[in-house]
What we know:
Layout: H1 9-32, H2 43-58, H3 77-87, H4 93-96, H5 103-113, H6 116-127, E1 133-136, E2 152-156, E3 159-170, E4 177-183, E5 194-200, E6 206-212, E7 224-235, E8 239-240, H7 246-282, E9 284-285, E10 288-289, H8 294-324, H9 331-355, H10 367-377, H11 384-396, H12 411-421, H13 423-431
Parallel strand pairs: 1-4
Antiparallel strand pairs: 2-3, 3-7, 4-5, 5-8, 6-7, 9-10
Helix pairs in contact: 1-3, 3-7, 3-8, 5-6, 5-7, 7-8, 7-9, 8-9, 9-10, 9-11
Amino acid sequence: MAWDFETDPEFQAKLDWADTFVREEVEPLDLVWEHEQFAPLDGGRRKAVDPLKQQVRDQGLWATHLGPELGGQGYGQLKLALLNEILGRSSWAPVVFGCQAPDTGNAEIIAHYGTEEQKRRYLQPLLDGELFSTYSMTEPQAGADPSEFTTRAVRDGDHYVINGWKYFSSNASTASFLIVMAVTDPDLDTYHRMSMFLVPTDTPGIEIVRNVGLAGEPMNGGSHALIHYQDVRVPAEALLGGEGQAFAIAQTRLGGGRIHHAMRTIGLAQKALDMMCERALSRTTAGSRLSDKQFVQGYIAESYAQLTQFRLFVLNTAWKIDKYNDYKKVRKDIATAKIVMPTVLHDIAWRAMQVHGALGVTNEMPFFRMINGAAVMGLADGPTEVHKVTVAKQVLRDHRPSDDLWPTEWIPRKQAAAREKFAQFLELEVGNL
């Protein structure tokens, strides 16, 4: 019987190195070059970041989600989960370790579906960390519902012409290319009507109308683009995976992305819990430390319980992905992790903010950024409500309706059946009275 909650010593040593490295070398980047992790490296940033990337490579921890043929370690999801817990503490860490979203997912689908020429042109520079990419899927009028997408790609000889609008195309302003999902045959069903295209960002006809920021960011100063594609002409060779394959490619990409978000959220929530505990032990009010107050103790206990449950669930889900090597078989658990994730981060960050008092709500502490991030996680890769429907349907498949008016666990019927089962012994009891 195998039942193990330990990490093998060799990989634990790697995790210990990563933990120290991120804390001492990478987290300071968040303070010096905030929000610049997706800008192409130049000048001082390149001189600072390139040596850090090399240290990661020397440790064999660069792009570990990819197989050795692509320069990674081919780590399974369980190892990735343990590493991503550490990387989740820092905005720059995924870039330094070569596993930043959306580039990780984009690299995976190009590696899986791309032609040799596409891999040479797009994949290798992406893996080398020399450029960034954008996944341009959602639309202003449709959100993430593919059945409502209207952006069209029409075949014209040996080219396709793309027209339409895309919304929340993250990092488009600094990306070198976009992966664009567009309708190629509107007469087919949702699962077969769309295709994906690899499109350089300098292609004529691509207009970033505005860069939408998150709450608290300046107007037009964000990184989530509203893009107008107007007569964007790309060669037929830009097609990724073949016509009508977009939905299948998207599901392959999003399955891994959702669990990776959950992994990094664990690290961020742990950071909030650590800050809460430090504050509770450091601050004195009304004659005693905050850590002696029952309300604060409740906050800490609730946060620890919430985070521990979520962490074990995510690790178990990662283990299942490794075991079955099939995202579809773990779809229910991946969706469940997506449901729970925003609440865990929001609740722990909110409690930590409260324990810090007035300081907690200022921009001198990171709690509002975490809370805002929790809200984003409730929408990224599909709204939480959609995933709840998915989970409910999956759970219900393992159950059956009652055969008659009364529930299966209706006590009077079960009690009668139990009496019938032990009738001979009950008769003996009566006979001995």
